[in-house]
Amino acid sequence: MPGENLTRDEARARAKLLAVERYEVALDLRSAVGEHTGSGPRTFRSTTTIRFRCAEPGAATFADLLAPSVTSLRLNGRELDPAAVFDGSRIALDGLAAENELVVDAQCAYSRTGEGLHRFVDPEDGEVYLYTQYEPADARRVFANFEQPDLKGPFTFSVTAPEGWTVLSNGTVDRVEPSGADDGATTSHFVPTRPISTYITAVLAGPYHHESDLYRRTLPDGSELEIPLGALCRKGLAKHFDAGDIFTVTKQGLDFFHDHFDYPYPFGKYDQAFVPEYNLGAMENPGCVTFREEFVFRGKVTQASYESRANVILHEMAHMWFGDLVTMEWWDDLWLKESFADFMGAFALVGATRFTDGWITFANRRKAWAYRADQLPSTHPVTADIRDLEDAKLNFDGITYAKGASVLKQLVAYVGQDAFLEGARRYFKRHAYGNTRLSDLLSVLGETSGRDMATWSRAWLETAGVNALTPRATYDAEGHITELAVEQQAAESHPTLRPHRVAVGLYRKEAPAGERPGALVRYARAEVDVDGPRTVVPELTGASRPDLILVNDDDLTYCKIRFDEGSLDTLRQHLGELTDPLARALSWSALWNLTRDALLPARDYLELVRRFAGAESDIGVLQMVQAWALSALHHYSAPGAREAAGAQLAEVALSELRLAEPGSGHQLAWARFFAQVAVADSELRMLSGLLDGTARIDGLDVDQELRWTFLAALASSGQADEALITAELARDDTASGKRHQVRCLAARPSAAVKAEAWDAVVESDRLSNALVEATISGFDQPGQRELLAPYTPRYFEVIERIWQERSIEIGMAIVRGLFPSAQGDTRALEAADTWLDGHPDAAPALRRLVLEARDDLARALRGQECDERAAA
């Protein structure tokens, strides 16, 4: 990896020197099928012509290319010796003219790691599927280029592929003609794109299942806009593909963004492909968006899964404007696309689709990601200091996405929705097909809002850390509020106190008309600008004494919510009686943050789950609460309390499973949760019975995906051997089934199994990215601490070698996934500290990954100490 890096300084120097006029890229993908007879990697021919200008004739620079070999190089008609100018990642170019033409004929390698041009062979039918994934800098694995976001250019692709394949790129097909060879292959020639960055170009090829539709809209000038829509997946998934729902959400999103952005969708067609072994959730390639194929649901899922898919569709669509039309200059301002897309995804979800509770999911799920990231030692401002591509790769994190989106939600409250959207409209028109920095966005928002955007930016975008807001109230003898103040705290490491526009809600137990008896309802609310360490809320003076004071009611700002003692006592007894689902979601999130901060014992949080999770009506909130409960059980509970706490959770899960409405999403969620906490013999027998049909629960459809969930639990407990897992694969001999099988095999509680899994991931590169992920997931079981303990020293012995030898995507997966967090004690913490102290010069990105994992472990150990004290 080190030789593949690109620094910000290098990129800036090259951007001052060069301007790209156009790219012409020809790919020959016929080698993707058939036997591979060579000794090296399987390769394809890539021929690139780049026409570009140079501001300083005679200067030198370089082009980017990661390829096993280069056949020929020609600069301005002059043949270059590949051995002399190509080092495996860069092509040295000197003696540039004012106008230049570079032609590169190379053999590029198909990918098995999801980086570059990924090649997947479907085990179900042997068909080959190809797709590209580039962000932040993997287009150079497919064609020679200037791999940085501010050297945009129009791209013209031509792709030669086997007979009968579907071939797509960013633009529409101009023509298809025979390849000229007697093999039935054809060459698809695509129309030139508008100027775009290298990392959002795309090529997809294979025997994909393809469905189509058409979006129509009358524009304000009276003209008609037509956007051809496509939806694709592997043939083996076609029977599960609900393209109709995907098209519905797509059309709703296009309507919403056209209504609000006043800038027609600029990239012609709109294809959406769901592809195998994808590293990300999705990627915003203009005209050819790619998604992980897990969004094609093979079995029954809850409405939260459909909502999540719709949110991702809208997130990627927002990128067509934020990111593709207007692109950040360098990865420092990655947030200019990701934060906006994250916010706009939720904004459009609520405003345009059936998922009108999307802000609840945002408050409960997305912000949890942000809160964790913002308390790590690697936290950074929303607008970050990105020194190089390795930094950029790691900054696709909860701060850039979810905190940035939360900050934008706060900004909308600060400047007003109309001013915010008008700022966006001016931003698109002013910078279309260009590149921007933070100052460009602040300029238009200042114009439309009249607000001091520089001060707001310094507080929210240019500093790190999360504030905590706590209510403090005093009362008179009659029980009325004499003063209610909001106190703001910041961590010592990041002491900035920010301005917050917040709502403060007062709740009490009462039964107004239409509410159930004993409901906990809001009876007063006030908005206030919190600024500094203490802010009084005068509008609530004189209100009767509440049972619960909820700071950041309605989730206007980004903060950790704290409670006064009376409010916390109320939640302990009456959390399930909060009638407002957003208030309930915010309370669950706040209670989890208290647990993570070792201010609430894990046993108390688990007691809240046992008492109130069954009453949670929002399925997305329920599933998040269940995930937090698992973390509390395995990582934050005192070791001596885990067995009893797990047994209690399993008892509650089984009870709620039986009580849930037959066939409901809640029943499915409790079934999955039960499998994750089942440990007693009777519970495992229940799972076995549900698998073999000797047990049943009314309404529960044990489809193939749920079968694998149950089998994974049996495998990790030692109740499913290799023969049983292999038999299940025979039932589901698909790509998805293979991933599940690999995960289950690695989960078995055996020293030999763990050794085999470790070697498959660490000592070999034969596994694809998806199977690396599945193996790590099975290997790392929280109930197998003794089996995993020997791998703590081995982990720290190999991670530098892994980082040097593997691609960054696989390196990140291994370093994160195999960190000895499951051991969960001070030995792993001490080993991490020893490695960090002894390797100050290790790659900064590698050190960051270890620091983050070490911090999560230290936080868990503090939580265990808190839980121990509560038991004393």
Short structural summary:
The chain has 872 residues and is an alpha+beta fold.
Which secondary structure elements does this structure contain, and how are they paired or packed?
Layout: H1 8-17, E1 18-28, E2 43-54, E3 61-64, E4 69-75, E5 78-80, H2 82-85, E6 90-93, E7 99-109, E8 116-121, E9 128-133, E10 155-161, E11 166-169, E12 173-178, E13 186-190, E14 203-206, E15 209-218, E16 224-233, H3 243-261, E17 270-275, E18 282-283, E19 288-292, H4 303-319, E20 327-328, H5 335-352, H6 358-374, H7 389-394, H8 399-415, H9 417-431, E21 435-436, H10 438-449, H11 453-460, E22 468-475, E23 481-489, E24 500-509, E25 520-530, E26 534-536, E27 548-551, E28 560-561, H12 565-574, H13 581-596, H14 602-612, H15 619-636, H16 642-659, H17 665-677, H18 681-692, H19 704-716, H20 722-731, H21 735-747, H22 751-762, H23 769-779, H24 785-788, H25 791-805, H26 808-817, H27 826-838, H28 844-871
Parallel strand pairs: 1-10, 16-17, 17-19, 20-21, 22-28
Antiparallel strand pairs: 1-2, 2-7, 3-6, 4-5, 4-7, 8-9, 9-14, 10-13, 11-14, 12-13, 15-16, 18-19, 22-23, 23-26, 24-25, 24-27
What would your notes on this structure say?
The chain has 28 helices and 28 strands. The protein has 872 residues and is an alpha+beta fold. The strands form seven sheets. It has an eight-stranded mixed β-sheet with strand order 5-4-7-2-1-10-13-12. A five-stranded mixed β-sheet has the order 15-16-17-19-18, covered by helices on one side. It has a four-stranded antiparallel β-sheet with strand order 8-9-14-11, with no helix packed on it. Strand 8 (116-121) and strand 9 form a beta hairpin. The protein is globular. The model has no long low-confidence stretch (mean pLDDT 95).
